[in-house]
Amino acid sequence: MTLKRIDGPRYEELTHHDRDVVMTALKSGANRREVMGWLLATGMTVGAAGSIVGAAGEALAATPKKGGSIRFAWDLHGPSDTLDPILFTSSLDYGRGRLNYNNLCRFNEDLTVGPELATEWEANSNATEWTFKLRKDVEFHDGSKLTADDVVYSMMRHIGQESPSKAKVLVGTVKEWVKDDDYTVRAVLDAPNAELPVILGTFHFKIVKNGTTDFQNPTGTGPYTLNEFKPGVRSVHTRNDNYWNDAHEGPYLEQIEAFGITDAVARVNALISGDIHMCANLDPKAISQVEGAPNAEVFAVPSGRYPTITAMMDKEPGNNPDFRIGIKHLQRRDRVLKVIQKGVGSIGNDQPVGPAYGAGWCKEANDPNTYPYDPDKAKFHLDKSGVGGAEIHVAEVFPGMTDICLLLQRECQKVGFDLQVKKVPNDGYWGAVWMKQPMNVSAWNMRPSAHIMLTLTNRSDAPWNEAQWKNERFDQLLDMAAGELDEAKRYEMMCEAQKLCATESGSLIPTHAAYLDAKAANLKGFPRVPIAAFGGMEWPEFIWLDT
Predict the structure, then answer these.
(1) Distance separating alpha carbons of residues 200 and 206, to the nearest angstrom
(2) pTM to 2 decimals?
(3) Where are the alpha helices (DSSP H) in 255-374?
(4) How far apart are CA 438 and CA 390, in angstroms?
(5) C-alpha dist (Å) from residue 98 to 70, 207, 233, 450, 538
(6) What is d(CA 506, CA 351) in angstroms, rounded to the nearest whole number?
(7) Reduced 3-state DSSP string for 135-193
(8) Crossing angle for the helix pair 450-458 and 472-482, nearest 10 degrees?
(9) What is d(CA 525, CA 540) in angstroms, rounded to the nearest whole number?
């Protein structure tokens, strides 16, 4: 190995040949001392050689590498785990979906959408028809070609009264999808929808192979193929070496295993011990423990996610307005943020849209005087309600969720109200408890727009309308805003909708929070899309191990 003498101390000043020599030496396993020795043999000073080796090491560390396997642990799993995109419920589902499938559009970190299986799209003059051009030469994992037939089949699964899609309310105005040719499809709408490409970038709108009905072993076009899937146990995914995206060299990892570790302490310990590489939903109380570990680091992304306690309005006691008002006046929102969330986030006001939505957030709907902490008012309304007591079923679906409920329980005790907190397992929670027990808890990921968020959470016919709050004016506002291209008018409509949620629904939303996860320090390449854990679950084809 020969190197020219370099008098300058910077790696960038090396010739391309000499830079390649240094990088090749490091890649081949040479250590810092050996490369330093070669540089010093050319007559270079110690300072210059050290600077060059350091810069070369940084450049090498920033270059994605292929190889290695990781284990990803979510905070809950159960028999309702699924690989059917239209039925996705948890972020574990979302992560597996991103491993196995692709969308037509994909989110950037600023929540704009860019191309994925669609290369371009265009709306007509009033956004009642959208045309999508598809990427050519994309193959499913079984070697068959992606065509418009697959897209039409996938999209039509969300349409109609009989569709079980969890996101069908988002595309309720889409009348049909039409194939123009093998690589062109059109969405024909009954009413304008200016956000359709944004909607199609969300978790449920994955493209599956035409005719797929067996989702125990489905085929997709995604960066990883499916080796094994056992709901409530684990899934195993192997790199798709025939992946269509040539914009980068990913996917980089050989294999990814995804499963749940429901105990928060055990999950963190598994990360620090090296048994797992991705630890989802980090409890804020464990931040210092992770930061003190040499092989682990906190991964935080500011967002509009939130925890909620829900009093279902189609059941007792949630159907009693005085009960709901009384409970709302007992929330210690400041303490939830400061003590339980360790200051990471912002105060909430019982409506889903927080400051992270930027221009979509209505400040007036987050007025702290709507339901301030007021034990006297709370006691008045609870006494007036005639409700003697209530019970919350709580699983740790959000870091600190149990503590949030216990804090509310203590405040209830102060005014003589008997609020029982019944702890239930994380395993199977979404299928067995959520939206079944009169008072339950949940955790919501941020969505890419205020309109999408409110449509999923509170529209009267939304499958996930967990409070079962039904308001005709609210639904009208969503319908009007969907086709409104004037931003000022759209803001007014969305602001009124957020105010209605804050004052009338049965949801208690004390705060909004950042996504707080933890990962192995040598696992790199994560995007920071703020709509779900680990950068919006957009990570599978981008992450890599620095070995």
Answers:
(1) 8
(2) 0.75
(3) 264-273, 287-291, 321-328, 333-335
(4) 9
(5) 16, 11, 19, 23, 7
(6) 10
(7) CCCCECCCCCECCHHHHHHHHHCCCCCCCCCCCHHHHCCEEEEEEEECCEEEEEECCCC
(8) 150
(9) 10
Six-digit token pair at 414?
Answer: 């102060």
What is the mean pLDDT of the segment spanning 254-272? 96
Asked whether 359 and 491 are in contact (CB, 8 A), the reply is yes
Structure token pair of residue 103: 């969308």
Query: The tokens 């007025």 sit on which residue?
Result: 367
pLDDT of residue 190: 94
Pairing of strands 389-394, 296-311: unpaired
Q: What is the pLDDT of residue 338?
A: 95
- What pLDDT is recorded for position 368? 86
pLDDT at 92: 92
Q: Residue 78 is which amino acid?
A: G
Are 342 and 355 within 8 A, CB to CB? Answer: no
Please say whether the beta carbons of 539 and 526 come within 8 A. yes
Give the long-range contacts of residues 53-60, CB within 8 A, separation 24 or more.
53/22, 54/11, 55/10, 55/11, 55/12, 56/11, 56/19, 56/22, 56/23, 56/26, 57/26, 57/32, 59/11, 59/23, 60/23, 60/26, 60/27
| Tokens 């959000």 belong to residue | 398
CA–CA separation, 378 and 386 (whole Å)? 13
- Which residues are bridge partners to 439 per DSSP? 311
**What value does the mean pLDDT take over residues 346-372?**
92
Residue 156: CB atoms within 10 Å: 13
- List, in order, residues 6 or more apart from 207 with CB less than 8 Å away: 101, 102, 103, 104, 117, 146, 150, 151, 154, 220, 221
Distance, CA of 455 to CA of 391 (rounded, Å): 28
Question: Measuring CA to CA, how many Å separate 395 from each of 247, 458, 468?
Answer: 42, 22, 20
Task: Please state, in angstroms and as integers, the Cα–Cα distance from residue 198 to each residue in 201, 422, 486, 487, following that order.
Answer: 5, 39, 18, 16
Q: Which CA distances in Å does 321 have to 154, 307, 327, 525?
A: 42, 21, 10, 48
- Sign of the alpha-carbon dihedral angle for 344, 349, 352, 358: negative
pLDDT tens digits for range 10-55 = 444 555 456 556 656 665 566 666 776 667 666 666 556 666 666 6
Which band of pLDDT confidence, cut at 50, 70 and 90, is reported for residue 358? confident
At position 389, the amino acid (one-letter code) is G
More confident residue, 213 or 11: 213
Structure confidence at residue 252 (pLDDT): 97
In whole angstroms, give the CA distance from residue 350 to residue 305: 13
- As a whole number of angstroms, the longest Cα–Cα distance in the chain is 89
User: Is the pLDDT at 494 greater than 80, yes or no?
Assistant: yes
75-92 residue pLDDT tens: 888 898 999 999 999 889
Q: Is the Cα dihedral 12, 15, 16, 19 positive or negative? A: negative
pLDDT in tens, 427-481: 889 999 999 999 999 999 999 999 999 999 999 999 999 999 999 999 999 999 9
